[in-house]
Amino acid sequence: MSLPSRKRANPLSETFSYSKAIFLKDLTIYGNTYFSRFFDWQGEAREALLLKIMSSPSDLFNKRLKLVTLAASVKYMGEVNYGDTIIIDVIPSKITLTTIELDFIYRKEKEGTDIAEGHQRIGFTNRDGRILPLPKILLANGKKYLSKDALDHVAVLERKLLWISEHSSLR
What we know:
Layout: E1 16-21, H1 35-53, H2 58-61, E2 66-76, E3 85-95, E4 99-108, E5 114-125, E6 131-132, H3 136-142, H4 148-166
Antiparallel strand pairs: 1-3, 2-5, 3-4, 4-5, 5-6
């Protein structure tokens, strides 16, 4: 998996980084990392980004929205040890009307070496499972973290979302 976000050319964007300490629960009895923990950390980093973007978690969940992970992957490249701190950069790399793709770069804080790369595609549904357009607040408040490719699509998406909100029968 090659992450195009590594080469992103949006000089105005910020990188959202999530820091994670490695504890014994993250390791096997042999001291190596449970592979599944990378998916757990990916979810934690994604949720931390959403908390940062949203003015309040209730912005999403009081509207009875469900966050749905449509796809997730991790490419493992290195080991972590008890007591290490890792940094997970989360880069929104592609946006459609109903989904966001996130790239994850995991690295050891002290050494700065990459230990994994990951990817997720997420969306939102209502409580009945009907796919919904991305929440407007997510696009409005999250622009500063977008890759250049994703940023190029936001204006078009905002016009589509405005049209949808004006035609309430599509909700």
